[in-house]
Amino acid sequence: MSLKKSVDPLVLINFKTYLEATGKRAVDLSKRISVACRESGVSVALAPQFCDIAQVAAEVDVPVFAQHIDAIVPGASTGHILADSVKAAGADGAILNHSERTIRISEIEAAVLRAREVGLTTVVCAGSADSAAALSMIQPDMVAIEPPELIGTGRAVSKEKPEVVTDSVKKIRAVNRSVKILCGAGISTGDDLYAALNLGAEGVILASGVVKSPRPETVILGFCEAVRRFNESNVGRHS
Amino acid sequence: MSLKKSVDPLVLINFKTYLEATGKRAVDLSKRISVACRESGVSVALAPQFCDIAQVAAEVDVPVFAQHIDAIVPGASTGHILADSVKAAGADGAILNHSERTIRISEIEAAVLRAREVGLTTVVCAGSADSAAALSMIQPDMVAIEPPELIGTGRAVSKEKPEVVTDSVKKIRAVNRSVKILCGAGISTGDDLYAALNLGAEGVILASGVVKSPRPETVILGFCEAVRRFNESNVGRHS
Amino acid sequence: MSLKKSVDPLVLINFKTYLEATGKRAVDLSKRISVACRESGVSVALAPQFCDIAQVAAEVDVPVFAQHIDAIVPGASTGHILADSVKAAGADGAILNHSERTIRISEIEAAVLRAREVGLTTVVCAGSADSAAALSMIQPDMVAIEPPELIGTGRAVSKEKPEVVTDSVKKIRAVNRSVKILCGAGISTGDDLYAALNLGAEGVILASGVVKSPRPETVILGFCEAVRRFNESNVGRHS
Amino acid sequence: MSLKKSVDPLVLINFKTYLEATGKRAVDLSKRISVACRESGVSVALAPQFCDIAQVAAEVDVPVFAQHIDAIVPGASTGHILADSVKAAGADGAILNHSERTIRISEIEAAVLRAREVGLTTVVCAGSADSAAALSMIQPDMVAIEPPELIGTGRAVSKEKPEVVTDSVKKIRAVNRSVKILCGAGISTGDDLYAALNLGAEGVILASGVVKSPRPETVILGFCEAVRRFNESNVGRHS
Questions:
Q1: Of B131, B146, B173, which to mutate for an interface test with C (greatest number of C Cβ within 10 Å)?
Q2: Which CATH code, of 3.20.20.70, 3.20.20.450, 3.40.630.30, 1.10.760.10, is assigned to D10-71+79-223?
Q3: Do D166 and D145 contact (CB within 8 A), yes or no?
Q4: What is the CATH architecture assignment of B10-234?
Q5: What helix, strand, coil percent values describe chain D, rounded to 5?
Q6: From the CA of A128, how many Å to the nearest CA of chain D?
Q7: Contact (Cβ atoms closer than 8 angstroms) between residue B182 and residue B171
Q8: How far apart are CA B69 and CA B72, in angstroms?
């Protein structure tokens, strides 16, 4: 399930440490999302908590991401997250430097290398256009720009601060032509995703918009509809 | 499987982030240890990596510990370890403040409370007799004294620095009569455990001594033999 | 200027990183406080920012504390706070583990030792009665209990949460008979100090109550009056 | 004393937390260096410990750097390093993200902005060519590439790993044409500086090579000689 080569817009759903997405409920939510996106065609990935990776990966047929990995090699690192361990549990990728789990740049660099070694796709998060561009030079597979002040607000970055997305895309593309660019913070509807794609983002990262929704399937279907709309409106451009 | 009331010596085996105890190998090792200690009678607990907790807990009939939990409540804490999550995965307890994953005292306090709320037994680690006594005032279920300079050396604390163990026991008991006292660092044989018990410890914490052993069963049987020897030599004292 | 043996109530004024107490303004404020407390008799100590220690210590005749020191020995520790350096600048003591600058318990232990080596008095802060008692076992010269939820609120711990102070005093005294006990959070008037002393505290730690006051001298004189009142009301008890 | 516009090679001497450069000895060393470089013409800057900034800045006529500043605004940040405070003490600049004091990229960004606000020149350190280029996108005044494995070894980066310097220069210049590029780790002689300049670096950062030297003046004079040699060998190139 290679995420790296995919040209489809990506919707990465971060389960954070929400109780609604812990243990059995993480597996149930994953199944509902998986069914909805199978029917809809949108490209979705899930980031459950570490303890739930194995069962989520076993039960659903979508890419699974760890929410973090540490910049460590196998050995004496009690309580840390080893890339080899999340890979063995079935993860396909790892989020790095999320605004709720920031790490040093030397650690981002080392963790990206470790992820590559074991075959994990990496999404490195950044809070500003400058740092997103900076971190894209570390050569992760994807960069996600998330203005921290909008995270968890329900006000979508792609509508509230479109200039942050366009500025990020411009600055990132000046130094890295191939990294996949996501945006996040406040994303919860298809319209938010549609706006993001129109700004040049190639996907979104979101959490409560799906996890806290009483009808996650409906949210997913909204994303699907947005991708279809976007593809149709762009079909003439590349032909 | 209540660990709190047990009067038996405890052998807590920390899998750290060793490749020999990651993924499928964590499950295999757990099974081998579980079989050996079922035959032998010694009280063993296992601390695999987070991603392996669910499967280890599902496969073996010994208590399972997380190697760490964060001092967080459910919510927006991407990449952190939620007590509820490790509990849901099947863990019975959690190690806190291991020398390879130290946290602030306010975090130890909050994490002990969170663990109690969700029903996890806690082992708080300390590097000196004074800090072990200090941390026993936070009211964890167990305190483990581990001089950092001996960790991973193969030179057992109970033989190399017996005075650290006796001093810890004395200082801890002056302020907390019920906390279970473990010691660790360099423990790898039954003799090391026997020495620890004679110094007043009620169990040990160890890692490479079992995880890196070509014959973990033999190590476990050595611990069993040590406990039997200790019980016999003490049988007259309490009658 | 030995603080350790003093039986007088202590008022420790933390300058934090307030602009009103930075650079020249730190020196001016220190002089005004120093003059006021010379006239009044109350025992005051000042904790300016690191860059201001030398000049404050040179200009005023009251004990000066660093707001933090690191648990390091001299050497290659760029950007860290060396005990020997704050001592050489003229500091008499150091605050450790303030709620705005918490450190690990192993670091508190090492920093207390380093402070003792170079001749600095230590005040270790704690956010709860249990952790205050725990940290008093590390043998600092003083312990300060500061409930984090009241810091900076102007609502004094000694009035809003008197039970936290009495509980702390009880628990600390059970394990350490000589450590000087301070309390803090929201202290800004003589009445707050008077209440604190009546609860068994031997001093207070405060910041904005003095630093942000348009008339710091008046606040200091209020503290002086409170100490006099407290001494008079207790004069019969010990005779 | 604007460092930003200077085209001269810079020698930035980091005093770290060496006892040889603490308190009175920091001031003495600064004076000796200052006299030597006044005679020699080389452009030198000094980075003493925080407590020594004020006196060093008062006594010598060379630029002074703080070894670190925190990404904070004035307020309630006990024990932290405020940009305004080091500026008020007389500092001209600040080192950020030294390998012994690494910070998160969001903190580097915020600290660079704070430094600019108060008028401090910034040197951001990085451990690899990629991260040096990445951090140059944050728009600091200078970037210093220091391979951590060579720091403190006495084996100069410009001789042991010249490709790291050239690679850094190339990658940094691709994204930032004006940032001043320093290199460091193991630099201790004029030859090391000469090699660095020939690789495209515009200065060096060093510590023990001067601080621990019995004759710091001699080391400085060696640097001066190296700069003169470099200038002469390049005089024809630009005419």
A1: B131
A2: 3.20.20.70
A3: no
A4: Alpha-Beta Barrel (3.20)
A5: 45, 15, 35
A6: 8
A7: no
A8: 8
Please state which CATH class domain A10-220 belongs to.
alpha beta
Q: Between D67, D82, D98, which is nearest C49 by CB? A: D82
Of C127, C134, C174, the CB nearest to B138: C134
Give the full edge-to-edge strand order of the sheet including A93-96. A43-47, A10-14, A203-206, A180-184, A142-145, A121-126, A93-96, A65-66
Can you count the helices (H) and strands (E) in chain A? 10, 8
Q: In this predicted complex, what is the ipTM?
A: 0.93
Q: Return the biggest CA–CA distance within chain A.
A: 56
Which residues in chain B have their CB less than 8 angstroms from residue C135's CB?
A: 105, 134
D38: buried, middle or exposed (CB in 10 Å: 19+, 13-18, 0-12)?
middle
The CATH topology of domain C10-215 is TIM Barrel (3.20.20)
| Conformational region of residue A90, where left means phi above 0, alpha means psi within -120 to 50, and beta covers everything else | left
Task: State which residue of chain D sits closest to A138, comparing Cα positions.
Answer: D130
Question: Best interface-test mutation with A: which of B24, B51, B101, B205 has the largest number of A CBs within 10 A?
Answer: B51
Strands B43-47, B65-66: pairing is: unpaired
Check if C146 is active-site. yes
Measured on CA atoms in the order B114, B116, B121, B124, is the torsion positive or negative? positive
Is D98 known to be catalytic?
Answer: yes
Chain D residues touching chain C at CB-CB below 8 Å: 14, 16-19, 22-24, 47, 49-55, 67-68, 72, 74-82, 84-86, 88-89, 95, 98-101, 151-152, 207-208
Neighbouring C-beta atoms of residue B70, cutoff 10 Å: 20
Other chains touching A, judged by 3 or more CB pairs under 8 Å: B, D
Cα A52 from Cα B85, distance rounded (Å): 8
The structure's pTM equals 0.92
In whole angstroms, how far apart are CA C70 and each of B45, B114, B146, D78? 36, 29, 22, 13
Contact B105 C106 (CB under 8 A): no
Q: What residues of chain C lie within 8 A of the CB of D53, using their CB?
A: 51
- A17/B55 touch (CB, cutoff 8 Å), yes or no: no
pLDDT in tens for each of the 239 residues of chain D?
445 445 689 999 999 999 999 999 999 999 999 988 876 667 899 999 999 999 999 999 999 999 999 999 999 999 999 999 999 999 999 999 999 999 999 999 999 999 999 999 999 999 999 999 999 999 999 999 998 888 878 888 888 899 999 999 999 999 999 999 999 988 999 999 999 999 999 999 999 999 999 999 999 999 998 998 998 887 655 54
